[in-house]
Write a structure and sequence with these properties.
It is a single chain. The chain is α+β, with helices and mostly antiparallel strands. It is 15% helix and 30% strand. The strands form 2 sheets. A 3-stranded antiparallel sheet has the order 1-2-3, with no helix packed on it. A two-stranded antiparallel sheet has the order 4-5.
């Protein structure tokens, strides 16, 4: 059984394969797909630790005729 609803998957590519945004379950999941004996790269391991530590941000950037603002 797949760990998230397939309909929630968004392809990211690199360095993480997919992001699942499940608004019904109120959860965002990062997914890395491996086959055979493949292992996480050092960068993927670092990303996993950052996510598990909760050091994830949401930043809203606004661009208009006056320039860029970050909220």
């Amino acid at each position: 059984e797949f760990p998230v609803p397939i309909s929630t998957l968004k392809f990211f590519g690199a360095p993480i394969d997919f992001i699942s945004i499940d608004l019904e379950a109120n959860v965002i999941t990062f997914l890395e797909v491996k086959s055979g004996n493949a292992v996480l790269s050092d960068k993927q391991k670092q990303i996993k630790k950052i996510i598990e530590a909760g050091a994830v941000k949401f930043v809203e950037v606004r661009i208009n005729e006056n320039g860029v603002s970050i909220k």
